[in-house]
Structure formats: structure tokens, C-alpha cells
Amino acid sequence: MSHKGYLIAEAKIRDVAAYEIYKGLAQAAIAQYGGQYKVRGGTAEILEGKWTNVPRLIIVEFESVEQAKRFYNSAEYQEARKAREGAAELNMLVVAGVDNLV
Fold first, then answer.
1. At residue 1, does pLDDT exceed 90?
2. What's the predicted TM-score (pTM) here?
3. Multiple choice CATH, 5-87, 3.90.226.10, 3.40.50.300, 3.30.70.100, 3.40.50.150
4. Pairwise CA distance, residues 69 & 71, whole Å
5. Where are the domains of the chain?
């Protein structure tokens, strides 16, 4: 049984207009590969720890880690990454979800 795959990213935006171009391209690629946004830059509130300058957070759910990687390595997303150059600094990882516990 395959677990859901979650892309988790933090973005530090430098050029809002250029980042908007990236967002449009990335959203289209995410949809094409079956991804669904779970978090996309909503308001964050620090509850614990030493967070400073909370970045824009993004979480996207895919059917599997493998599908998330297909999206990331796709020609469509590589075009979006190229459009993002200089507009934002992004850290991204993929993580496997857990089965629903009953």
C-alpha cells in the first residue's frame, strides 16, 4: 500500500510580480500531476519554538511520494522553477504520509 506524498515548501519572496508568474505555472503543473494544495501561504501563528520571520508555507498532497517526485521532475515544473529564478528562495522536501489511524 502506497502512502500519500506531501511536498512541503517554504518560500521567501523577493519579487512579487515574478513570483506570481511562477505560481501560475506551478499551480498548472500541480493540477496536471494530481496534486492538491492543503496549505498555501495562510496566516501562521507560532505556538512553540524559536521560529523567526515565518516564511510563506506550502503543503501539497499527491497520491504517493513517487507521484510528487514525477511532478517535481516534470518539464512543466522545471519551466516554473526557471521562471522563479531570482524571484524567491524556496526550500522543498517530500515526505510520506501515514495511514489513517482508527
1. no
2. 0.89
3. 3.30.70.100
4. 5
5. 5-87
